[in-house]
Backbone:
C-alpha cells in the first residue's frame, strides 16, 4: 500500500470506527480529534497498524461527554480471546488537550488493544493482585509503545499523568520489562 493509499485507509477506518455520543454537539474540535486518531495510527509500525486496518483487531472508539471528573482515556475489552472486541473511550474534555498529550494517550490505548487486553472479568479477583495486574498491564502498554520506537510520546503521556516522584519507578519498570524480552502482543496473563 502506498503512503496516500494508507492515509486514505486510515481516514476511512476512523470514519467507520469512531462513535460520537449523541449528547456531544458537533464542533470544530471533532475534525481535529479525527486527525489526531489518524496520526496516532499512522505512527504505529506497519504490521501493528495493519492489524487494525485489516479488521484483525475489532475496535470502536467512543467519544463520550465529560464525566465531571478529570479522567484519562480507557480501553475496555469484551468477549473470548479469539474474537475480542475493544472499546477505547475518549472523553470530550480531552479534545482540548495539546496534540502531543492526546496522541500519546491514544497510543497507549492502541497498545492495550494490540497486546490483547483481557476483559476485567478475567483479571485476578483479590484487590492486591488486581492492583498489581493493572500496573503490569499499564507497564506492558507503555513498553509496547517504547518497543514501537515511540518512547518520546510515551514520556509525554507519563509526565502528563503521573507525579514526578513516580516517574523513575514507572520508567524503571518499563525498562525492566523490555530487558526481559520483546513485549508480546496478545500475551497478557491472568
Residues:
Amino acid at each position: 500500500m502506498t503512503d496516500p493509499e494508507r492515509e486514505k485507509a486510515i481516514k476511512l477506518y476512523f470514519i467507520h470506527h469512531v462513535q460520537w455520543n449523541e449528547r456531544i454537539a458537533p464542533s470544530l474540535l471533532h475534525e481535529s480529534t479525527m486527525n489526531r486518531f489518524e496520526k496516532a495510527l499512522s505512527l504505529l509500525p506497519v504490521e501493528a497498524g495493519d492489524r487494525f486496518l485489516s479488521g484483525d483487531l475489532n475496535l470502536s472508539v467512543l467519544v463520550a461527554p465529560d464525566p465531571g471528573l478529570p479522567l484519562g482515556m480507557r480501553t475496555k475489552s469484551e468477549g473470548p480471546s479469539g474474537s475480542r472486541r475493544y472499546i477505547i473511550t475518549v472523553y470530550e474534555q480531552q479534545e482540548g488537550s495539546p496534540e502531543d498529550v492526546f496522541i500519546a494517550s491514544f497510543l497507549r490505548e492502541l497498545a492495550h488493544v494490540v497486546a490483547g487486553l483481557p476483559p476485567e472479568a478475567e483479571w485476578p479477583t483479590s484487590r492486591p493482585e488486581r492492583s498489581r495486574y493493572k500496573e503490569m498491564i499499564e507497564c506492558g502498554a507503555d513498553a509496547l509503545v517504547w518497543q514501537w520506537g515511540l518512547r518520546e510520546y510515551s514520556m509525554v503521556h507519563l509526565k502528563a499523568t503521573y507525579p514526578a516522584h513516580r516517574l523513575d519507578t514507572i520508567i524503571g519498570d518499563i525498562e525492566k520489562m523490555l530487558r526481559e524480552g520483546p513485549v508480546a502482543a496478545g500475551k497478557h496473563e491472568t
Summary: Residues 3-179 form one domain. The chain has one domain: 3-179.
